[in-house]
Structure formats: C-alpha cells, structure tokens
Write a structure and sequence with these properties.
Pfam families: MHB. This protein is mainly alpha-helical. It has helices at about 1-35, 50-70, 70-80, 85-95, 100-120. The chain is elongated, with a radius of gyration of 34 Å.
Length: about 120
C-alpha cells in the first residue's frame, strides 16, 4: 500500500506547487498592471522670478537676432525718439513688408506668450 500513496502525494505536492507559482505570477502581474500612472509634469511656476527668467531669455535671443540682422536692427533703432502713436504703425508696415522678420520675432517671443497665457498675465503687444 505504501507505493500507492506515494504517487498521490507527489501529485498533490505538484498541484500545490503549481498553484503557488500561478498565484505568485497572478499577484506579480496584477500588481504591475495596477501601478498608478506617474503624475503629469508640473508646469513652471507663475512667479516673478519665472517671468524674469523667461523675459531675460527673450531679451537675449532678441539681442542676438538684431546683432545678426543689421537691417532689422537699424530699423528698430531708428524708432528711438519717435512719437509712440507712430511707432506701432511703422512697425506694422515694416513687418508686413518683411514676413520672415515677423516670423522670427514671433518665434523668439513665443516663451513670453506661453508664460502669459499659462499664468493669466496680460499679453503685451
């Protein structure tokens, strides 16, 4: 009788071992699937320091652009001392005649626009 009980024990042990493995696998894969998503990236703060950082970057890039484009630099320099109500019109006419300049200046100013939209600050002309 002893030989008849041994195969049963082996089968029971095998089933128990397989069950333990299956359970461990289910727990491992189930917990991996239940991991929370990482939090969304936190946008930069809407602080005076962040505004200063953004504007200094825009100013730096504008300076570089004007230095590398003397005709554009000359135009904007010529506006010094002009009545404010005339400056806007002259800039509009110049940018309409020079769409590539308009696009470059818009690209340079985009971080400022993004900051103002994100933080609810008024947009400057």
């Amino acid at each position: 009788m002893l030989p008849a009980t041994r195969p049963g024990r082996r089968t029971a042990m095998g089933v128990a071992g397989f069950g333990a493995l299956a359970c461990a696998f289910a727990i491992a894969t189930g917990s991996a699937g239940a991991q929370p998503l990482p939090p969304a990236p936190i946008p930069p703060p809407c602080t005076a320091a962040e505004l200063a950082r953004v504007m200094s970057g825009v100013t730096f890039e504008t300076s570089n652009y004007l230095t590398l484009n003397p005709p554009v630099n000359d135009f904007f320099t010529s506006l010094k001392g002009q009545p404010k109500n005339e400056i806007g019109e002259k800039v509009q006419v110049y940018l309409d005649a020079n769409p590539a300049v308009r696009q470059e200046l818009q690209r340079i100013r985009q971080p400022s626009v993004d900051f103002r939209q994100r933080c609810g600050a008024p947009v400057t002309p």
